[in-house]
Structure of 3-phosphoshikimate 1-carboxyvinyltransferase:
Amino acid sequence: MQPAPPAPAAFHAPGPLRGTVRVPGDKSISHRALMLSALAVGTSRIEGLLDGEDVLATAAAMRAMGAECVREGDGRWMVHGVGVGGLLQPAAALDMGNSGTSTRLLMGVVASHPITATFTGDASLSGRPMGRVIEPLARMGADITASPGGRLPLMVRGLCPAVPIEYRLPVASAQVKSAVLLAGLNTPGLTRVIEPVATRDHSERMLRGFGAELTVEEDGTATRIITIRGEAELRPQEIAVPGDPSSAAFPAVAACLVPGSDVLVEHVGLNPTRAGLFAALQAMGADLSFENAREIGGEPVADIRVRGSALSGFANDPRDVASMVDEYPILFVAAALARGRSVFTGLEELRVKESDRIAVMAQGLAAIGARVEETADGLIVEGTGGDRLAGGATVAARLDHRIAMSFAVAGLVSHAPVIIDDMAPVATSFPGFEALMTTLGAERRQLAPA
Ligand SMILES: O=C(O)C1=C[C@@H](OP(=O)(O)O)[C@@H](O)[C@H](O)C1
Ligand SMILES: C=C(OP(=O)(O)O)C(=O)O
């Protein structure tokens, strides 16, 4: 298939942003809901599932391995699971598109099933390191043949029964943790992951919710020891997926930056392992509050009210990186408009996301007039103190949805247009982004014909 032609766009805000919106379902939870439903015995129902391309790649893979996954309506899915150990050999390569989460978690699932699966992906995903999951899964007995540098395309030949391991995460990654736990689901005995820095814990919460025997201990130094008993029988569930805090980040920062704005983002998941951005914005002086706090499907949820705010510079605590790892690109935009200097450190993981998010944001922000300095593990930003950026440049999204949306927001507070060369990647995690921003009062700018 020919790749779609690029979809350039630029946005502006003729006035304050105002209104009440809901962002699509949480991407991390959506992937896990499909995978665990496919591994349960019987029929699960999911509502609020993210209908984004990344999650659809997971659904297609579960189907290719024998689970029935049916989209019954907007965000409403029915999954008929085959049981842990019951997945079938897929007839063709599993196309993971742009999705690191689908790839790494499913490699874990396949590793302990008696099947072989080939994983392929787009140019961005094919450049991302898979060695971090190959290493523990090979220790469990999976036979994995990867392209040079531990990249896609790669083939996983599972071993059943696999060998339980105790694995200390060398990098703070929920994807690596989840890959090992999911492999442990169909492995006899106890599989253990030791996590020195807490990462998102949706896998742990949901595995327990499906009836797996899983314990989490803390050793007093914030290290978490997660143990799962394998050969589990998962019971089908009804799952409600909350709104994605990583998507809510874009309208929230936009509302902070556009003077006079007042925006309510409803129904946002606020799991503490995910909510770092909102605390950072509050520390910068944002007028941001949480309303109607509640719990849905084992996850904390609230509505977030954000008003236009004068922000101050920020220095992040490197220990908090995992709680907002995907939100740094949009936080860099907030820092570019804040008063004073922001210093971001400990962000090396950003270099191996859909793009090198430190380098790509540094280049793009510099091109639209922000004062930034890239460092080995982060960025130093001298903010404008609320003045608009110059704009007047085209920035490359590089197949990275979060880069595209970050510069869409930067355009709202720039004099001249900020043209994003391709908005298409936004469909991986936030279908409806443009419509939502338009509801709030943002507008697409007319671009001169090329
Ligand atoms: O487990 C997950 O759902 C995710 C974990 C994070 O990746 P890492 O585990 O590579 O940090 C995050 O960046 C990604 O968007 C989703
Ligand atoms: C890093 C991300 O996703 P993934 O690793 O699943 O591609 C993201 O959504 O920002």
Remarks:
- The pocket of shikimate-3-phosphate (ligand 1) is lined by residues 28, 101, 173-175, 178, 200, 325-326, 349 (CB under 6 Å).
- The first strand starts at residue 11 and ends at 12.
- Residues 189 and 230 are 6 Å apart (CA to CA).
